[in-house]
Amino acid sequence: MRILITGTSGLLGLNLALQARNAHTVIGVDRCRLSGVPFEVLCADLLEPGAPERILEAARPDWLIHCAALAELEPCEADPGLAARLNAVLPGELAAACRRSGVKMAHISTDAVFDGTQGEAYTEADAPHPLSVYARTKLDGETAVLAADPAALVARVNFFGWSPSGRRSLAEFFFNNLSAGKGVDGFTDVSFCPAFVGDLAELLLAMLSRKLSGLYHAVGAECLTKYEFGLALARRFGLDETLISPASVERSGLTAQRSHNLHLSVHKLSTVLGQALPRFSTGLERFYTQYQQGYPQKIRSYPQA
């Protein structure tokens, strides 16, 4: 298959492109911030008028996986207009262009669309209640995509891995600070279901291969707090776990409001795929193996313009 991937200078986009190229022809879309990558890259600003149609015409893909977004919560709070343009309007435009061109689209959304007050795992049937600008605009993006193209796939995700900048995932936050001997806070009141980015990449490709459409939760099968996440990483890498202090997100001083419980059920996706989804523990092992093999250095070797 020919796969067009947006946001290929980001954590998910680049890892997905590098993994997908083993079995598919990959074309990335980026604002010329990467060079030397082992796949074709189209330099484009997706916010320019007519950009969705132009990139589809240039790439002629079978599938589009839309990873590009304004994904950091504080910048979204600071510029809600840009957040809405990138996270809500653009996905709808891409979905409409895909429908006209006969391209299968997968749109990447987030677990943050829920407010975290539910006592049990959220299913795809549960009503979202976003708390932040980021979450609201991502939910608007889901709605726009499925309204423009009901055959599109929307995946709510939460993932970790090695990024081109070395600073984009929670795992890198803990690894970088603990490796430098710096103390950090780990939130005991935020639960989530992180997936290793390599596992998520495989899930997305499997979902597209099955021609799935509609909304799915594509997160890890194991729920834990961010404090527990940090402790597990410290232990696997042989770092000092006592540098991680248990803390509350309510006293963190962060601008954007965070949800406390982001436990998402993966029963729907697991049933359709006929397999259990990967757990955090196995993803952490793959993350560690990549470190041993020098993958962080490799992914950071693609120069940033």
Textual characterization of the structure:
This protein starts with a strand and ends in a 6-residue tail after the last helix. 40% of the residues lie in helices and 17% in strands. It is built from eleven helices and 13 strands. Strand 1, helix 1 and strand 2 (25-30) form a beta-alpha-beta unit. The mean pLDDT is 95. The chain is of the alpha/beta class and 305 residues long. The protein has a single domain, classed as Rossmann fold, CATH 3.40.50.720. The strands form four sheets. The protein has a seven-stranded parallel β-sheet with strand order 3-2-1-4-5-6-11, with helices on both faces. A two-stranded parallel ribbon has the order 7-10. The relative contact order is 0.16. Helix 4 packs parallel to helix 5 (133-148).
Itemize the secondary structure elements and their pairings.
Elements: E1 2-6, H1 11-20, E2 25-30, E3 40-43, H2 51-59, E4 63-66, H3 73-78, H4 80-101, E5 104-110, H5 133-148, E6 153-157, E7 159-160, H6 170-179, E8 184-187, E9 191-192, E10 195-196, H7 197-209, E11 214-217, E12 224-225, H8 226-237, E13 244-247, H9 267-273, H10 280-292, H11 295-299
Parallel strand pairs: 1-2, 1-4, 2-3, 4-5, 5-6, 6-11, 7-10, 8-13
Antiparallel strand pairs: 9-12
Helix pairs in contact: 1-7, 4-5, 6-8, 8-10
- Helix and strand succession? EHEEHEHHEHEEHEEEHEEHEHHH
General form = globular
Largest sheet: 7 strands, parallel
Number of helices: 11
**Domain tally:** 1
Radius of gyration: 18 Å
The CATH class: Alpha Beta
Give the oligomer, counting copies of the same chain as homo and different chains as hetero: single chain
Q: Please state the average pLDDT score.
A: 95
- CATH homologous group name: NAD(P)-binding Rossmann-like Domain
